[in-house]
Amino acid sequence: MAKVLVIGASRGIGLETVKAALGAGHSVRALARSGANIPIQNTGLDKVSGDALARDTVQKALEDVDVVIQTLGVDFSLQAIFERTNLFSQSTRILVDAMQATGMKRLIAVTGLGAGDSRGHGMRSEPPLGEDLPHDAPSLHLGLQCHRRVGRAG
């Protein structure tokens, strides 16, 4: 089984990804600003508190993992609706650079931003990228489905 690094693992898609990976028998390193507070107890879970925008934190979290799943999100607030965010592009650039430095080649990037209640509420810092993927796209055996292709960090 794989050792999976989940970035943004404390809530929402990230927390569900951690549960799915553990349930599938993978070991998981869960990186989140509040990593210690992740409400899961499992011997296959390594909780790491840290910031996805901190290069050293990301580099260290990559040690001895087989695949990275980036599931960052932002709080849905009035401020977030009216201001642009560059969290996704900045953290992805840091992550991709660290992955290239270590030879890591497997990255899955997922976000719920733009879906459900957040749909149509700004928060785009880049032009929309990507095309629809077939519903049978590979899912890393976590029981997750990929419905949209994500863009590259610029």
Can you characterise this structure?
With 154 residues, this protein is of the alpha/beta class. The protein has one domain: 3-Layer(aba) Sandwich (Rossmann fold), CATH 3.40.50. It is 26% helix and 15% strand. It has a 5-stranded parallel sheet with strand order 3-2-1-4-5, covered by helices on one side. Mean pLDDT is 76; it is low at 121-154.
How do the helices and strands line up, and which of them pair or pack?
Elements: E1 3-7, H1 12-23, E2 27-32, E3 45-49, H2 55-61, E4 67-70, H3 78-82, H4 87-102, E5 107-109
Parallel strand pairs: 1-2, 1-4, 2-3, 4-5
Task: Output mean pLDDT.
Answer: 76
* Ends apart, CA distance between termini: 32 Å
Question: What is the name of the CATH topology?
Answer: Rossmann fold
Strand content: 5-15%
* DSSP helical segment count: 4
**Total domain count:** 1
Spatial ordering of strands, largest sheet? 3-2-1-4-5
The CATH C-level name is Alpha Beta
State the order of secondary-structure elements, H for helix, E for strand. Answer: EHEEHEHHE
**Rg, nearest Å:** 15 Å
Number of strands: 5
Global structural class? alpha/beta
Helix content: 25-40%
The low-pLDDT segments are 121-154
The description of the largest β-sheet is: 5 strands, parallel
Gross CATH architecture: 3-Layer(aba) Sandwich
What is the overall silhouette? Answer: globular
Q: CATH H level: which superfamily?
A: NAD(P)-binding Rossmann-like Domain
